[in-house]
Amino acid sequence: MAFPFGRWVMIERLPEEPIVAFVYLDQHAGPSAKGGLESESRQLATMPSRTVRLSPQTNLRELTDDEITARKLPSQPSWLTSFGPQPTANAPWRTDPHLAGKFHPQFPDDIQVLVHDGDPRRMRRGPELCWVRVQRIDRAPTRPVTGAHGLEKSHFVYVGELLNGPHTLESVKKGDRIKLLSVAGMPHPLHVNDDYLRERLEWQITPCDKCGASECFDPPSVMARVRFPDAPADSEIQAFTSFCANPNCGGVQALKRL
Ligand SMILES: [Zn+2]
Fold first, then answer.
1. If DSSP codes are grouped into helix, strand and coil, which group holds residue 93?
2. Fewer beta carbons below 10 Å: N end or C end of the chain?
3. Distance in Å, CA 186 to ligand 1 centroid
4. Is the same domain home to 54 and 96?
5. pLDDT digits (tens, 9 = 90+) for 228-244
6. Has residue 175 been placed in a domain?
């Protein structure tokens, strides 16, 4: 469930008096709300008397702008800063159909991402599943993907912070901001770099014949060089096929320069 982080809410606790509270993320205790009784209106923002740990069963509703104004509530209470970075109130990744059900149940922006140094067949280093806290959307152009329904639009490129250090990878470390794509057919979002995203616009990738995955590890020109090492340096490979990027899939993707 998506909690309304950064919003004032009314929490019903029948038969007791409802609580007016601000929803925030406590890094240790999970989604929470801090506030007080209606009758404490003057202090509930500055000196909250109640803290509620939220669950999908918590009966809450967001206050309207008029209700917030009437109660003279600030847009953000001053105590919020002591709880560190907060989830973005506007977080479209939480409703991305390819990511549904994959976020950490307590930390709604944390997701396991397939992080890598490039194509495992080229690097001889496998991808690793790492936790990433998604922070924002990158401005992503439409990327052409052919599928059963003809040309599809691409999905978002997200930017997030790598929360744990990979064991063997060398291109990224804990704390780095990395980009990721939500990919149909893949069990986890895929880490991508700017070279890949730039080149991706010039290539049509026919999704894997087994799992439907429509993205790869390496920029297509790098993939082509690996597959045709004897091609003259000034030649441009126009099309080729590749084993699917999805670990353990074994299907085939087809790439064609547009
Ligand atoms: Zn596949």
1. helix
2. C
3. 8
4. no
5. 988 888 888 999 999 99
6. yes
